[in-house]
Amino acid sequence: MEILNSNLKLIVKDLYKNFDGKDVLNHISFDVKPGEFLSVLGPSGCGKTTLLRILIGLEKQNSGEIILEGKEISNLSPEKRGMGIVFQNYALFPNMTVLGNVEYALKLHQETAGDAREIAKRTLDLIGMSDQLDKKPKQLSGGQQQRVAIARTLALNPNIILLDEPISALDVSMREVMKRELKDIQKKFQATMIFITHEQEEAFYLSDRIMIMSEGNIEQLDTPRNIYDHPANDYVRDFVVAHLDQKYESLLKCTGRIDHEK
Ligand SMILES: Nc1ncnc2c1ncn2[C@@H]1O[C@H](COP(=O)(O)OP(=O)(O)OP(=O)(O)O)[C@@H](O)[C@H]1O
């Protein structure tokens, strides 16, 4: 496998995907920096989920390259990529406790099996769930279940975490709480995250950079402030800037843990 000299976490080069004669990802290229929170923002059908599935190895691209930590992984199976994923519906085992869910995930990975209980406890403690270890998922709120799902992913120490609309299923008040928590968790774990969303405010609140997509194309990839101040085209202006409008200053005040602004 080719080793490329790069200090970027992830490089996607000229990625192309076609379903039934329809171009779903139109030769897109982008990169993700270590420790960065990158949102992929776009309306339904623009290709976000397809991109995520290709990155994690659940779907095969027609052409293009994916380079993770300097290694070409485009043709590796999902388990060999070392990525973590958090789904919208949590995907917890209902009959296992909170601790059991995280411990089980660790036991499936040989290198962590021996210390599974200790690592699971430590991770759950770090995300504030140490007093819920013996509860079953149905005894928890949606937000708490999502925290367990995030802990389960973090415990495996993935090289990058992909989050597929993890907040969308929560009710409005819980979404606000979860947004703040997600940001805290990312900071605490220094994790590199790619966050898929169709919600402009979520992307602006959470991200170091936002990749705005429409119909399989990247319309703009930049910091929230640069996108707001300098939208690349009418699409970005209408989809993002016009939508945010009054909330602009308060949202931007919250962004930018990592200063990628030039
Ligand atoms: N397995 C598939 N077979 C055929 N077409 C597909 C398949 N998966 C996705 N598509 C098509 O690809 C396009 C992009 O879909 P995708 O799910 O990636 O978009 P999305 O931005 O994630 O939308 P949503 O937010 O609604 O999930 C859509 O037109 C969709 O119908």
Automatic annotation (TrEMBL):
Its EC number is 7.6.2.9. Residues 10-240 form the ABC transporter domain. The keyword Transport applies. Transmembrane segments: none annotated. Pfam families: ABC_tran. GO terms for molecular function: ABC-type quaternary ammonium compound transporting activity; ATP binding; ATP hydrolysis activity. SMART domains: AAA. Keywords: ATP-binding, Nucleotide-binding, Transport. Gene3D superfamilies: P-loop containing nucleotide triphosphate hydrolases. This is ABC-type quaternary amine transporter.
